[in-house]
Amino acid sequence: TALGDPERPTVSDIIRRTLLETGGIAESNLAPLSRTKWTLASRTDKGVHAVGAAASLKLETLDDEIVLGEAPSANEAVPWHLSPAAVERVNALLPADIRVLAWHPVGPSFSARFSATHRTYKYCFVRGALDVAKMREAAALLVGQHDYRNFCKIDPSVQSFERRILSFEVAPVPGLAVNGGDDSPLALWEFTVSGTAFLWHQVRAMAAILFLVGQRHEEPSIVARLLDVEAQPRRPVYDIASEAPLLLYNIGYDLGGGADIPWVYSAATLAGVSQLWADTQAASLLKATSLHT
Fold first, then answer.
1. Residues pairing with 253 in the sheet
2. CA–CA distance, 147 with 166 (Å, rounded to integer)
3. Are 169 and 150 in contact, with CB atoms under 8 Å apart?
4. Which residue in 56, 112, 120, 154 is a FRET match for 252, CA 20 to 30 A apart?
C-alpha cells in the first residue's frame, strides 16, 4: 500500500517517506510494498516503544553512499555497506525520537520478518512491595512451547495459539542504582522475554498475570492453570498491563552457523540517541524530585 494517513503516520510511514525524500526509494516504487520488498520484523501497538526494530528493503543508492570492503577470496563477492553519511542524511530528516541506528546488506531472499529467529521485549516496572521471588517462579512456567490463548487478546484470524518462549527473566534494570539498592520500593525492575514469535498483546497479558502473582492475589501456579487450555479453554477476564513500559528490545537473526547480523553502527547517531535519552531521563528525574519536595 501507499503511505498511510498523513495526520496519524506510523513509524514505518515516516521512515518510508524520509527514504523517498532522500532518494532511497523512488516514487514509482513507493507502492505496492512488494516493489521494494519492504518488510517489518515486528509490529507494535500504539504507545509501545522500540529500540531494536528491524526492516528490510531494496534500497536505491548513489556511488558515494557505498563503502567497499575486501573480498575474502577471488571467488567471493566484495563485501559492502552503506556509508555513515548516507544514513545520517536519512536521520537528519527524521524526528528526534525516530532513528536508523544500524544497517547491513543482506541477500535477496532475506525478510526482516520471516528470517528472524527470535524477538526480545522488555517491560519495566517499579518494584514497590511486589514479591519478585514468586514472580520469577511464575515466569519460569511460561518458558517453553505452549498454547498461549489465555495470555493474549484473541485475533480471529489466528489459527494456532502455540508459540515458543525461549527465556523469561525478572531482574533489576542494570545501571540504575537507587538508595536502598535493588530491594528498594523505588528500584526499577524489568521483565525480559524472548520468543520466536508473539501473539497479540501476549507480553502485556503475561506481565499482568505476573503482577497479580507479585501482589499476592494469585499463586505462581496460576500460570500452569492458564496454560492448560483443556481445563481453561477461554481466557478469564483480567486487565492486561499498560503499553507504556513495553519495549521491543531486539530482533535476532541467524546468517549461518549461529552468527547474528554484524550490524554497522554510526557513532554520530548513537551519540545523538544517547543525548536524547540523557535529556529525557534528566527531565523525568526533575519531575520526580519535585514530587518529593
1. 116
2. 14
3. no
4. 154
Burial 86-110 (b: 16+ CB within 10 A, else e): bbebbbeeeeeeebbbbbeeeeeeb
C-beta separation of 55 from 102 below 8 A: no
* Whole-prediction pTM: 0.85
93, three cell numbers: 530528516
Neighbours of 148 (CB within 10 A): 23
Which active-site residues does the annotation give?
45
Which amino acid is it at 10? Answer: T
Q: Which residues of 262-292 are buried (b: 16+ CB within 10 A; e: fewer)?
A: eeeebeebeeebeeeeeeeeeeeeeeeeeee
Tell me which amino acid residue 36 is: T
**pLDDT one-digit tens code per residue, 110-165:** 899 999 999 999 999 999 999 999 999 999 999 999 999 999 998 888 889 999 99
Q: Bridge partners of 265?
A: 102
Residue type for position 187:
A
